[in-house]
Design goal:
Elements (H helix, E strand, L loop, with lengths): L2 H5 L3 H5 L2 H13 L1 H12 L12 H6 L1 E6 L6 E7 L5 E5 L10 H9 L3 E6 L13 H15 L4 E5 L1 H11 L6 E5 L5 H11 L4 H15 L8 H5 L6 E6 L8 H9 L3 E6 L11 H12 L1
Parallel strand pairs: 3-4, 3-5, 5-6, 6-7, 7-8
Antiparallel strand pairs: 1-2, 2-4
Length: 289
């Protein structure tokens, strides 16, 4: 697969084996109900992948430890990287890991910051097979209490949504940066279903299943809903060519934030944007003001 084609392919399509896509398509034809349960299990199951070369230095040089989230009783792996009284918390996205923002972490250290990140439950080196956004939110809140105070939180994709919610709920940080962050949970389930060769009917059933399972409308976790409660300076970063999270999410979240700045890039997609030095320099400038 060429680099351009890879950038234009949603990460779910890249990581999911072809037989799962075939199964999802067949189940959608036979029974939308069964397809929705199959999709729900897939939706909560992150995919692990080999550590990329760009993340190896952070993986080798960071101080790593295990931590159990007190409410969910799930394991996370904590990464402490660099040494400074000024610290930044990094939150990775779905199927990511604590070193996913390694290039950003390296530049933050050069700028005089220390970095704390984590493998969410069932991600990276953390145990388990299933995970969900509330695990990310609790991890962020627990890490702030144990390793904070933090100058800022930087969240990518689902990590950005979780960071928005944590800050909205009172996480005491000075600034927030979100990159490639989705807005609507309903829209996420629709995109997921389509990527899994299913349809909107399956997505709606899956969303209803989650609402019942967790006893709340999952759209209450949507980015723009959380954004209404965020008062601190926030930098919203998104790429026009992001095929995993469409650019309109950035505009919707930005509109609801009280004190925000929007940086829109082009040609970086959902993942390569994390290593873009224009973006990284902007983040460091934003944190320094």
């Amino acid at each position: 697969m060429t680099k351009q084609k890879k950038d234009n392919t949603p990460v779910q399509r890249l990581l999911v084996p072809s037989y799962i896509l075939v199964t999802g398509k067949i189940l959608t034809t036979i029974s939308p109900f069964l397809a929705s349960r199959f999709a729900a299990k897939l939706f909560l199951t992150p995919f692990r992948y080999k550590l990329p070369k760009r993340e190896k230095e952070m993986d080798e040089k960071s101080r790593q430890s295990k931590l159990i989230l007190p409410y969910f009783q799930r394991e996370i792996i904590v990464y402490e990287y660099g040494s400074s009284s000024k610290k930044v918390l990094l939150a990775h996205g779905w199927s990511g890991r604590g070193t996913q923002l390694a290039v950003i972490a390296e530049e933050l250290i050069k700028a005089g910051y220390g970095v704390v990140s984590f493998d969410a439950p069932a991600h990276g080196k953390a145990s388990g097979n299933m995970s969900m956004m509330p695990h990310f939110i609790e991890a962020i809140e627990v890490l702030e209490k144990k390793y904070g105070p933090f100058e800022a939180v930087i969240g990518h994709s689902l990590g950005g949504m979780a960071s928005l919610k944590a800050v909205s709920d009172g996480l005491p940080v000075k600034k927030l940066v979100i990159i490639g962050t989705a807005n609507s949970v309903t829209r996420i389930t629709k995109e997921f279903a389509r990527n899994m060769k299913m349809n909107d009917k399956v997505a709606a059933r899956m969303k209803s299943y989650f609402d019942n399972k967790f006893g709340a409308d999952m759209d209450s976790l949507s980015g723009a809903v959380s954004a209404e409660g965020v008062k601190i300076p926030t930098l919203v970063v998104h790429d026009e060519d992001d095929v995993d999270v469409r650019i309109n999410s950035a505009y919707e979240i930005h509109e609801k934030l009280e004190n925000s700045e929007l940086l829109v890039t082009k040609g970086q997609g959902h993942r390569r944007i994390l290593g873009n030095y224009e973006v990284i320099n902007k983040i460091i400038d934003f944190l320094s003001v």
